[in-house]
Amino acid sequence: MRSITLKRVKKLINGSPIIDDISLVIPAGKFFALLGPSGCGKTTLLRLIAGLEKLDSGQIFMGDEDISDCPINERPINIVFQNYALFPHLNVFENIAYSLRLKKMPKILIQQKVLKILEAFNLEGHIYKLPSQLSGGQQQRVALARAIVGEPDLLLLDEPLAALDFKLREKVLLELIELQEKLKITFVYVTHDQFEALTVADQMAIMNHDGTIEQIGRPKEIYEFPISSFVAKFVGTTNILPGTLRNLEGEPEIEITDLGKFKVDISQKKSWMSEGCEMMISIRPEKILITKKVAHNFSNHLTGHVHSIVYHGRSTQYNLILKNGMRLQVFEQNEEHFPQEVIDYDNEVHLYWQKENAVLLER
Amino acid sequence: MRKEKSSELPFAIGIPALLWQVLFFYLPLLFIVGTSVILLAEDGSFAGLSFKSFGNFLTPVYARVIFFSLLLGISNTVICLVIGYPLAYFLAFTGKKFKNFLLFLLIVPFWTNFLLHVYAWFFVLEREGVVNTLLMRLGVIHEPIHFLNSVFSIMIMMVYYYLPFMVLPIYSSLERFDRRLIEASLDLGATSLETFRKIVLPLTLRGISAGFFLVYIPSFAEFAIPELMGGDKLMFVGNAISHYILGEGTGSLGASFTVISCTVLLLTAGGFYLLLNRLLTPKQRCDG
User: Fold this and answer.
1) Could you report the predicted ipTM of this complex, rounded to two decimals?
2) What is the pTM of this model?
3) Is residue B72 part of a domain?
């Protein structure tokens, strides 16, 4: 098992960079998610790794081996295309056997391998069917089976769930995680869906519109400690409040115009932090306590006016207006059938959060 | 394979075309078949049926005429396919911005009269023509070559004229071709050649098949090109038929030869159809 290393990879399309100087290590045997908004070049990055696109500069290594100039059909990398790209004139068996036949493998061995994988993917009943006779979920499994039957070192998945309906997606996601753990092949999963990325990934990278990588880390690190407002807003939902950093030497605070001063945690001190600098804090909506009563043991307190309430089933979303006109979102878990206090439109409420739950961001 | 959508339009929409077919195709065909077997008395009245006129053609001379026509049809079709497929491939995949312009160039000859094409080729191929002059100037040859009135000049004109009929259906099947299939094949370890043989070719067989018949059927019966470009040296079915039909009192001979050559054409085209269809049906083997 070998890791993949991208060194200063660059790709231009019509003269402007779509991938701009990306360096990245994809650890061996891990489930790696590449998350980014539509059109940010994440699919291009995947195609560069697969060898479907040529690099304009930089190198790609597999272990210690430079594979930048290795032709696509010689790379031990397979890709599951977004539309699956199954061969329409070949039946399920022949689609899966395609790469094995090219390797001139003995026929009996091909049959064994294909039948084994058909069984593992619950496709035994569809051996003779053409792709057009399969459902979306079955086509997706055939595409996956075709890509892994040749035992590649690396499997690339380009938004593989985009064509499936919502219920099926969750199921397939869990199947993918199991499959990766069983095969121990490195998976690189490209998606614009933060839920998918957070669910599957051991490691994830967030790409932005400039064709660079904004942050790399474990899903929990990315969600809890985003390093920029782009990451904070793209992964999950958040409240961004701009202010000024004060009292850096004593008990640090953020001063927000017409709202007051709020305690912040700067145990992870960054170089940009200085007394009086303009900055922002990001607070996740579920980290804020909303109540009509007075609560204790919280570092920060605010009052707000309930503007609208959206019931989501497992949680309720409150949209609040603060006294300086800013808006704030709060999620509350619906833990009980009948909450003891009912919060309604136009109510004045207390909002509390701990200083550790406010992430400081450079402005 | 793709399933055809069932049409919701009423049957009546096909009636004008059907009328046209019956009036100008099926009725004349019936007339030809009738003429080939009906005997007429001196006064023009019906005098019975006879297959006697067919007997005149059971000679090696006419077997040769039919054989050469088959050869003309098949060789023209094969040459058009061999030249046309790469051309269609180029147009569909690498033409890009110039695609429409190049397609326009391909069909622009259809806008001018057929005879003009023939004269243009005379000008190119004659003794003092463009090719001979060029080759003499370059010192490649010292005596002008007789291009005209030969099999060579017939084939040049045939391929020139029929090429678009081969290119267009193949182009349209390649145009619709999902290029990700090529990427998937390469990704799974196939070389470009293997990808072409296993993926591109089978998936464009329908276009090839359409082009094949569009070229084969009319070129088997072609008479204008052999007549104009081949002098009187070679006789093909088209020439024989026009000779008898237009001749004095040989109408029934012409009709029976038409029936014979149509039968040959139908049988060979049917054979090619079965062959191509076999190639089109996906192989359902799983035995490895």
Assistant:
1) 0.86
2) 0.82
3) yes
